[in-house]
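Chain A, query sequence.
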Amino acid sequence: MQRLDLKTLRYDKLGQSVLIEGRKVTLEISHEALETFCNRSLTPDEAIVKVAEEQKRLTRLAEWVPPDDGKIHITTNILMNDGVFANGEA
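Chain A, predicted structure.
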């Protein structure tokens, strides 16, 4: 089971995403995905809070989505479809 460390939660301005460290990988959630999930615009601080609130969902997604170069990228498509399209199961 992938464990996410909330102490490492931070916003990456360059990549416009929220980063959180897992046991063996870094989980990267795009700002666009979070805004689509919330159905409104978010500030970077609000995006960080939303990631903390959705820790269980993101932990589950971190198990399903394979890492790429030590990072798991959570995009709008993956977040809104619980990772189903990432595995080609749709």
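Helices lie at 31-38, 44-53, 55-64, 76-80. Residues 86-90 have pLDDT under 50 and may be disordered.
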